[in-house]
Structures are given as C-alpha cells and as structure tokens.
Amino acid sequence: MSGTSLFGRGKKDQVSRAASGGRVDRARPLTFTFDGKSYQGYEGDTLASALLANNIHLVGRSFKYHRPRGIIAVGSEEPNALVRVGRGAKAEPNLRATQVELYDGLYAESQNRFPSLKFDIGAVNSILQRFFPAGFYYKTFMWPASMWMTYEHVIRNAAGLGKVADDHNDPDRYEKTNAHCDVLIAGGGVAGLMAALQAGRSGARVILADEQNEFGGWLLGESDTTIDGKTPADWVAGVVAELEAMPEVTLLPRTTVFGYMDHNYITLTERVTDHLGERPVHLPRQRMWKVRAGQTVLAQGAHERPLVFSGNDLPGVMLSGAVRSYINRYGVVPGNRTVVFTNNDDAYRTALALHSAGANVVVVDLRRDLKGELVKAVRAAGIQVMSGSAVTIAAGTQRIARVEISPVNEGATEVLDDPIHMDCDLLAMSGGLTPAVHLHSQARGKLGWDEQLLCFKPTTVHEASFNAGAGNGVFAADKAIENGMQAGTAAARAAGFDIADGSAPEVAAPAQSWRPLAAWKVTNGMGEGEGPKAFVDYQNDVTASDVKLAVREGYQSVEHVKRYTTLGMATDQGKTSNINGLAILAESLGNEIPQVGTTTFRMPYTPSGFGAIAGRDIGDLFDPVRLTRMDDWHRANGATFEHVGQWMRAWYYPKDGETLREAVDREVLAARTTAGLLDASTLGKIDIQGPDAAEFLNRLYTNSWLKLGIGKCRYGLMLKDDGMVMDDGVTTRLGENHFHMTTTTGGAAGVLDWMEEWLQTEWPELKVYLTSVTEEWSVATLSGPNAGKILKAAGVDISLDPVDFPFMAMREAHIAGLPVRIFRISFTGELSYEINIRARHGLALWTHLMKAGAEFGITPYGTEAMHVLRAEKGFIIVGQETDGSVTPQDLGMDWIVSKVKPDYIGKRALDRASMAADNRKQLVGLRTKERKQVIPEGAHAVLDPNQPMPMDMLGQVTSSYYSPNVGSSIAMAMLKGGRALMGGTVYLPMLDGSVIEAEVVEPIFYDPKGERING
Amino acid sequence: MLLITCPHCGPREESEFSCGGEAHIARPLAENNLTDAEFADYLFLRDNPKGMFLERWRHAAGCRRWFNMARDTVTHEIVEIYPMGNTPKSKAGKAAHADSWRRDTAAEAAAKPASKSRSKQGG
C-alpha cells in the first residue's frame, strides 16, 4: 500500500471514522447517548469504537486518583473504559466499553466522576498523590480499632468502581443450563477455530466459546494477513459455516469462559440479548453455562503490554495492536499526529496501518539495532524511526498533547541526551505480548518463563487440557493455526475420537520477530518518584513507584506485594499489568522474574453478573415451599403463617382483628377448657422395618426399646456421640419388626440421614430399612378435655375408654369410614389424640373434625399456641431449649437415660468427667416478680445487676410467653448451675437499662402432677 | 467441582454428594473401658492432611449410599472409590491408610474384635 490514504474522513459527527473499511455497516447508523450527549455510530461498532469514531478518548476517571482515563485496548483486557450502561433498574456498572456492542438507543455514563467527567472533585486525590502511596489505607486506618467502622464507611463511599442500579430488583430474566461435551474450546481466534474444526471433524461433541460477537479473534483486525489466499474474515466465515453444519458442535459467540474448576468443570456466561436494543421477551438476557468437558483446548490469545513511562495513562495513549484493530476492524482512526512507541517489531504494523489511514506517524523504538522486513517497510513508507530512544514523558490535560523523546540506554534507565519535544494526539505503545493464561492458571496448570518472548506461558497442565495459539506463547499466525490444529487433534484423540493429523491452512503475514526488548520502566530523567506518574496497573491505579515502595518497606513475596499494592487484583486480574509489575518487582528485589514467580489468577476471567449466576432461582423459585394438605382450610380461615424449614405452618388464627397475643390467648385457653385442633402434619415421620429394628432403636435412643409392646408408643431422646441432645420424638411399635418414628419438623431429614449413616457405616450387620413417610400422612392433633367427646361425635369406631385405649398407645380405627392411626400421646398435657390419615384425606379429616367438634367448642390453634401449651407443661423443644451443647441431664431429663443399657449413642460421652460439672447450664423455669411481665426470649440472666460490665452471665432465656392458663408470664432458661439456684432470684438487664427480676422455679407451670392427661 | 463416580449411580456432580469427613474411624466397641483422652481421639480428633486423604462420602441427592474415597487434597485427584467396611486397594490409598496415626490409638484397638490381636493385623 502506498502512503496515500485510502481512507477519507466520514460524516462530521464521526470525525475519526474512515470513509470505508472495517467490519461496520455504514448503511446502518445507530444513535447512542454518552454522558447525556447524543452521538452516532454504526452497526458492528462497540461503544469504544463508536466513541473513538467521535474522537472521544476521555471516558472515565480512575479508581484511586480519579485521573482522566481513555480507552487503551480493544477487548476484554481494557482496564480503563469502564462504563455504566442502561438506565434505572436495568443499569449495569463496570462494563468494558470495548465489549459493549452498540445498538440503537444505547445509554451509557462514565464512572468515578463528580460532578462531571471533565471536572472531577475527587481528582484532588491526584494532587495529594504523595499522601496516597501503596498500602495507604492499611497505614492510615489502623488505629484506633474502635474507629474502624467509621473509616470503613468513608472508604466504602470513596472507593469502589461504578454504582450498581439503585434500589430496584433486576427486571431482566436470566437462565442457567448444564452441558456435557467431549472437547470445550475457550477462544475462537485462528487457533481455537482450527482446534474446533479438527475436534468437530472427529465426531466429538464440541463447544466453542468466544467472548466477542464474531469468531476470528485478532486476525479480524489485521489487513496484512491472508489465510489460504483469503482475507482472515472470509476464511473465518468458511470455517464457521463448516462448524455450523456439524450437528455435534455448539458455537457460542458473546460467551466468556470465566471459570475453570476441578475435573474440567467450566463456567461460561453467554450474553444472549445484551447487544440488542429491543430484547425479545422469549430470550433471557444472559445464560450461564455449566459445562463438564472431557477435554479442553485453551486458546485465549494474548494481551499486549503497555510500556511503563511517565504519563502513560493519559487519554490518547493506547495499545498499538488496539489502534490497528480500530483502524482495520472498525474503520476508526483514533488520531492524526501519532507516535508509535515500541520495544518490538509488532508496532511497525500499526505504524503502517496509521500511515495508510492518512495519519502522521513517528516511530520511537527502545531497541538500537533495527532490522527485518517490517522496519524496512516502515522506512520505505517514509516514516521517521528513532532507534535507541524513548518517550520519557507524555503530557497533556485530558488528552495527550505532546511527548518528550530522548535517547536512552539499553534498559531505558538513563537518559543519554536532551529530549526533543513533539506534539501529538495519539500514542500507540507496544511492550510485547503476554499470553492470557488465566484459565490455564485457574486450572492449576504450571507456567514457565520464556527468555525469548519475555513472558510466562503454559508448561504443564493439571486437568485434561491443551493450550494452543497465542495463549500458548505461539504468536505468529501461521504457527498459531498449526498449534490449534494439533491441540484440537490431541484433544479429540484424548476424548476417544479418531482423526488424521491433517495439514494447516497456508498463512501469509509479514515476517517479524516476536522478541521484545526488556526495558520495564522507562526513566523520565528525574529522580525516583518524581515527575508524572508511570502506571503499571491502570485499573487499580498502581504505579511503578508503588511497587518499588512496597519492596523498600520489606515486601518480598509476589503474593504479598499484590495484596499490598492491589497490583493485578479485582476485575482486571492483571491482564495488561501482570508482567510489567512482576518485572519491576524483580528488578527492585535484584532478582530474576522466574524466581519472583507469578501470582495466581482468580476467577472470574472477566466479571460475570450475579443475575446469570442466580438464573431463575429467585423469588418464588428460590426455595421450595412445602404445604400441608390442610393448607387451603388454614388460608380460608384467616391463619397467619410462619416458615418452619421449608414448611409453611399455621401460626395463629386471628378472629375479628385480634392481635397475636389475643388470638393465642384464646387458642391456648380453648385447648385446656374445651378442645383445640392442631395441624401436625409437618412432623417428621420415618417408617422403620426389619428384624433388628428394635435393637437399632435401642442403640439410637437413650432409653430402652427392646420390650416395647406392639401398639405402644414411647418418647425418646436422641444424642450425638458427644452426648448432646440432637432430636426427640415419639416412636410407636406397629409390629414385631415395624416401628413408626416421629421427629421434630425441622430435624426430619437430618435424623433420617443420621440413622442411615449408622446403619451403613457402623452397623451394616443390622437388618433395618428406613423410609421417610413424612408426606404419606396428614396429622390432626385433637387436644383438650372434650377431645374424646369430639372423636366420638366424629364417629370413631373404637372404644376410647382409657382402659381400652390408654395413654401412650396407638390404635387403628376408622373415622367417617376412612382408616386412621390414632396415637394417644400429648404435647399439651391434656387428653390428646394425634390422628394420622393417608395424606390425601387430610383436609377431609380436618373439616370433619371441625364440624363434629363445633358443639364442643373445638378451636383450631397454630404453632404459637402449641409453643405456649408445651411450655406451660415444661416440655422442651429441641433447637429452642437446646443448642447442641445440652445433655439430657442439663435438661433435668435423667429419667429418660437408661442406667442399665451397656451402650447407646452418646453413652460414653455422658460419662466424661466434665459432664458432671455443677456449673453446666441447666434448664430452669423463671417466674417474673412482676407477674404479667413477659421476658424477651434471648435475655441474659445475671446474679447481680449492679456489677460492672461486662457482667458475669448465668445463661439465657430460651422460651418465654404469656400464659392465660397460669394467669402470668412463664419462661424457661438455661442457667449455669441452674438447679442449685432454685428458689433464688436472678436479674435480666434489658437494653433500655431496666432490669427484670425473676425467681428461679421448676420448669413446669401447669398441672405439675399430670392429672389432666385422661381428660 | 469434583466429578464423583458413585459406585451405584455412576459419575455425578459433587453437588449431589455430601462429605462425611475422615474414613476408617471405627466407633470403639469397648468405649466404656477407654480413658476420656482416648475416647476424645475417637470423638473429636480428625486428620486434615495435605495430600492423600481417606474420607467418607454419601450420594445425598441420589441413592443415599455411603462409600469411601481416597482423594488428594492438593490436586483433588480421586484415586479410588471403595465400599464401606473395606480398606483401600490403590497404592496411594494403602499408604495413606498405613500412615494414619489413628491406626495405633486405643480407640482403634478397642474397636477391633477381641479374637484378632493387633500383631496379626499387620502387613
């Protein structure tokens, strides 16, 4: 190409757009808004290319110093151009403008600026930069510790990147999907495409994912390369067409492989409709893929490194390859008076591209001895090349305006002569290429330092994985395509498919050396830390001086320096900064880069929104809700509900505007004067069968089970092997080898697992079989002095005489013709029948009982009244009185612990010396001095309320209610040495400074002799 | 996330399983004869090695069956999956089993049937 421009200038409002060229569709102009102003771009643009087309370089402020920042890259490695896209609830912060595809009506705002991008108050941080060195927050906000909460508030406001959407729920829909494949390929550049072709041709099931809108990778931005005689874009189109025709190949453009976990578990985010202004309702916004891959091919490509020199973060300072891509792929020429600053050959291709686009170009090369075809071509084009020189300072306010260029020594550590000054509006820099090894590193693959290419590249893999292309340190297109082909072949074969080696397409590209010169920090001719800052990590605002300061302060490990300076952290994960940072660190330590090593790359490769991670598991779909068969009745009768695990249980049934307390008082009184009806269907129920069932229960519970008669019920307490109470419930012997166990509502699943564990892992010789039958039975508990009369009125077909049907017995019977199991057990202390019926008849049973009981004052009661009724009797609830540190003895339930059984779970632990300590917390009752006063649950008791804080706590109140049957408040508490305190007084200091006084009493408040059990 | 081959259901995602911690901790049959310290070895002490570890897993969201696994805690390589009540057969698994301090505790000795003396257990 001659020096004459093929590119004229485009429409006035896209002043930097070339008249032709690139992959944008000039027939489809799009309007978008940035910081309130309207602009035009074209279909095929990214937000970044459209902004540059409008000659806008300043697009954001930096994280710490609020410095003006511009677009430096063209892809996901962009550290600066983070924008907020969308409005209101749909706004999403921290999107890379280089990855946001333009659509008509796109609305974007810059970030980290107040009040405006051009005038930012926070930029005072930049003036105060001497006071914001590395580790500033650690050093400043260390002391006093009590102030940390205040500091944190201030820091959180000042720090951070963009703002999330204001208090709205995200209105978009997201999806998750699972997939399996033989070969997953991350990256759809030439290497990835070739790998996919080979694997696809073998018949393997292939997933090819690329984060960009079209496949082809870097080559879409090259005008000087052909593949099999075609332009890269034409070649790519042919390959994609072939892949699309393969039934086992899934192509996922706009999809980022962001995580690589154990055993080839890979996570991807597909941006399904983000690129559309009008989003079809039938499609999710994003879809998260969870893929289990047989083999992977990582073809992530490489990132170009910035050069580290003073002022290298000014808007208008860009990566050389990015400049070339904007010209060739997007038809955008980002500057007219341009300086190309490089330490390698590749930037010469950019110089040629800029020259062809009609820009003025000067090449400043750190290397002295320049040779090779590209250098010749550049010189032949009449472009000035300054060898052995450096841009020592870039200057300007909100855009680069001029540079100082000086001859420097080999390592660019010394200025050799006076600088010359040059005006410019664009600087294209190239510091060499860094393979993107993020996924390889996440998968714990090893890296090795390449002395020739001055980069880390993959050496050995840890998972079933192959690296290919630039990500493997193979930068030349012809070699990368071959490498991709080999990787695809190897992966397919490893996955069990057969494929011939094949031969790679012919690639024609300029011959170039890929070796950069090692000059990691370009001096500005002044002392260390003087002059404009030279940035290493743009996104985290880390300068070369910060890294050196960390070393001076004693940090040596790369992992420590990373955390101290924040180098390579957060969403950027060191894409452009990693090697420069390591090299400067190594230099400061007087060590070699391979010895310093590299940090671990963390997930995600680029941020993935929580929406996609949550998928549709939100709102009603977040967690299942379990309803009893009587639920319709509860709702129709005005019940309020509470969550008990996944269950929705009727809490209380307010009538005529009753408060909770009024309704519960009424329900509790009715259960002791007439009758109450409780939906107890949620109780855990386990069917236990087998010749060793009784023996198994005998080992599981603390009391004896071998001699329990058929048709008899027994209460049991289950301990863990550490002697602590884990569950309780009533178990009934249905037959010689058949038991029906009940557990707490919340403990059902855990108890079943617990029993299975013992049977499978410790006592496999026991022949016992367990089945969860919780949902097979609906349970209505009828309780109160009229319970028997109501059962009779309901038509029960057995004798209810206590002689025929005693307490703690089970009878099979019929009610209204339906078979039922009736358990005469009681959680209220009243005459009580737990009526179990096949689940589907639950509602029929309930309504039938309500009807039959109407004349006897039957009253439905909820879980709150149930709690009060059991507390009146001093019955514990596991998980309320107990917390995993409570023994049966602590609960005063020694009576249930067998003294004669040789073994049961927990027995040996109860014999430990510490179990007998008299200062263990023990269950007691509390009677408030002010009889009507209800102690808040969780209140702590002390002996002396006037002692200085922190006070000696005795323990806590576990249950506390108002009891209308007692006519006062009742409470249970776990107090240290509680039994010995009986009759004494304890005090319960409240948050408001008041103190409740209470007497320690037996934890039973009603019918202590148990005379009401027979009605 | 591990890919675990359930002996009954085949390869499944880790999320279907729950880990039951260190394997081969027999509940002492003669626990009443142990000192508190010896009993504490059984009850509380668990290994947390860097490298090969023998542990128990349960296919909680599948067949609900327990099994043993020899897994490298560094590489997450699953070397062997073997039934409850068995000892590992792989070289690495065997070595981890033999190396365990627990094989020498009184709790472990008390758990062994009286007819077999410890000396006969060797090898």
Portion of residues in helices of chain A?
Answer: 10-25%
Provide the number of structural domains of chain B: 1
The separation of the N and C termini of chain A measures 106 Å
Strand content of chain B: 25-35%
Biggest sheet of chain B, open or closed, and with what strands and sense? 4 strands, antiparallel
Derived structural class of chain A: alpha+beta
Shape of chain B: globular
Give the CATH class of the domain at 668-907 in chain A: Alpha Beta
Rg calc of chain B: 15 Å
Cα separation of the termini of chain B: 36 Å
Chain pair forming the biggest interface: A-B, 25 and 25 residues
Could you characterize what this model shows?
The complex is a heterodimer of chains A (about 1000) and B (about 120). With about 1000 residues, chain A is α+β, with helices and mostly antiparallel strands. Helices cover about 20% and strands about 25% of the residues of chain A. Chain A contains 24 helices and 49 strands. In chain A, helix 7 (about 320-330) runs parallel beside helix 8 (about 345-355) and helix 8 (about 345-355) runs parallel beside helix 9 (about 375-380). Mean pLDDT of chain A is about 95; it is low at about 1-10. Helix content of chain B is about 20%, strand content about 25%. Mean pLDDT of chain B is about 90; it is low at about 115-123. Chain B has one domain (about 5-110): Folate-binding fold (2-Layer Sandwich), CATH 3.30.2270. Chain B is globular. The interface of A and B includes residues 753, 761, 762 and 902 of A.
Task: Provide a short characterization of the protein structure.
In chain A, 21% of the residues lie in helices and 27% in strands.
SSE blueprint and pairings:
The complex is a heterodimer of chains A (1015) and B (123).
Chain A (H helix, E strand, L loop, with lengths): L24 E10 L2 E7 L3 H7 L4 E4 L6 E3 L11 E4 L6 E5 L9 E4 L14 H4 L8 H5 L7 H11 L15 E13 L3 H12 L4 E4 L16 E2 L4 H13 L4 E4 L2 E7 L3 E7 L14 E13 L3 E3 L12 E3 H11 L6 E6 L4 H10 L3 E6 L7 H8 L3 E3 L2 E8 L3 E8 L12 E4 L2 E5 L2 E3 L2 H5 L4 E4 L4 E4 L6 E3 L9 H18 L12 E2 L26 E3 L4 E2 H9 L5 H8 L12 H12 L3 H4 L13 H5 L16 H6 L3 E5 L2 E6 L7 H14 L1 E5 L4 E6 L3 H8 L12 E7 L5 E11 L2 E6 L4 H15 L6 E4 L4 E7 L3 H7 L16 E6 L2 E6 L8 E7 L3 H12 L4 E3 L2 H10 L34 H4 L10 E8 L11 E2 L13 E9 L4 E9 L8 E5 L5 E7 L14
Parallel strand pairs in A: 1-7, 8-9, 8-14, 9-11, 14-27, 16-23, 17-18, 17-23, 18-19, 33-43
Antiparallel strand pairs in A: 1-2, 3-4, 5-6, 5-7, 10-28, 12-13, 13-14, 15-24, 20-21, 21-22, 25-26, 29-30, 31-32, 33-39, 34-37, 34-38, 35-36, 36-37, 39-42, 40-41, 41-42, 44-47, 44-49, 45-46, 46-47, 48-49
Chain B lengths: L2 E4 L3 E4 L4 E5 L13 H8 L8 E7 L7 E7 L5 E5 L8 H9 L6 H6 L6 H4 L2
Antiparallel strand pairs in B: 1-2, 3-4, 4-5, 5-6
